[in-house]
Amino acid sequence: MKYKIYNDVRAKLLNREEIAFLDVRDEAPHATGHPLFAANFPLARIELDAYTKLPRRDVHIVTFDDGEGLAEQAAERLGALGYTDVSCFEGGLAAWKSAGGEVFIDVNVPSKAFGELVVEVCHTPWLSASEVGALIDAGEDMVVVDVRRFDEYRTMSIPTATSVPGAELVLHVPDLAPRPETMVIVNCAGRTRSQIGAQSLINAGLPNDVAALRNGTMGWVLAGQQLDSGQTRTYSAAPPESVETATQRARAVADGTGVKRATRQQWATWSKQQGRTTYFFDVRTFAEYEAGHVPGFYPIPGGQLVQETEMYAPVRGARIVLVDDDGVRANMSASWLAQMAWDVWVVDGLTAEDFSVVGPWQPERPAGAQEPAKPPARYRRPYEGTTAPREAMQAYLDWEDGLVAQLERDGTHHFKVWRK
After folding, report:
1. Of 257, 267, 266, which is closest to residue 331 (Cα–Cα)?
2. Residue 209's domain spans which residues?
3. Among residues 414, 415, 417, which one has the least CA distance to residue 13?
4. pLDDT tens-digit series, residues 81-129
5. Per-residue model confidence as pLDDT tens digits over 217-233
6. Nearest to 395 by CA among 383, 387, 408
7. Does residue 187 sit in helix, strand or coil?
8. Can you list the alpha helix ranges (DSSP code H) found in 106-185?
9. Residues 331 and 251 in one domain
10. What does residue 412 show for φ and ψ, rounded to 5 degrees?
11. Report field, pTM of the whole predicted structure over 0.90
12. Are 214 and 300 part of one and the same domain?
């Protein structure tokens, strides 16, 4: 068994070299404390997820745990699957702490910390729950757009809100608020997705006043205000002229943030996964993907990819390639990934014929791989539903406030926020 120590992992991250730093504990213990770029990769799901999430078999892998022996088990199982460069982090979480490593709690921390950095750099406008509630009660000219997944929106939503998941904003908000005088309020359950969503509209040059709802549905509850449930309001198909304008806006943002353009030949070469890990993502909706997609691209809506990047691309330092069929969602999603220090490319020049494969994603898995009899222990997010204690909601929001300081102490992120 090979072992790595703190300096080995840190050097890879500082040099922006590829590393799959995998926390193989269940999600619940992972959320109690882990290094910033230790992607959660539960031991119970290794055979199910490895070939999709670790597409290059000779990628540098370091397994991580809390010293209970899970890292060694994971290394053995990854070796049995054909991975050739696998080590364990010696001493687990305690060794990381004793070496001076910064420890982060919760899940999807790189994206959440980045969202806080965006607000600090861009001064993204925001309004409190009481302020937004007063505007709604007064019948002001405004629209509220909820950027979470539709299932989250249906569970609970701000009164009057319309579901427009993150990557769809630049494409659809102009038709929901066609008058420049209409204010646009962007909300999620907490902070990150609303902050990124609001700044996306600002970056894309929407003429309306735009603000994030500070602290989202949690802030709404903490302010003593009533949420709706079971709502179904959503966007309609954008007319061609709106798509054209949104495409131009998204392309300008992507170019400004350093997004690169991939040719068909590059894409074909990278799909062989030789010498460099490459992830291929289709960032449209799941329904659009199943109706017709490009072979080899994994479906994940762009807003979800930006929010949960390490769940889908656990190899830090890898290349990411995005596609869509309108030039809006891929470019806007790519613009954020580029600022998060990913080497991100968008495939241009695709036609309807390229989206030829019908049906859901078909993962490659070893023979006999089955769902675990006992699913990995999942971390219950304080922003899920309405039953979390108010103290837990407030503690979560206070934690997000401290993430930028943690980023500075950690020093391995390479994030660079773009301002128009």
Report:
1. 257
2. 114-239
3. 414
4. 999 999 999 999 999 999 999 999 999 999 999 999 999 999 999 999 9
5. 999 999 999 999 999 99
6. 383
7. strand
8. 109-122, 129-137, 150-155, 169-176
9. yes
10. -110, 5
11. yes
12. no
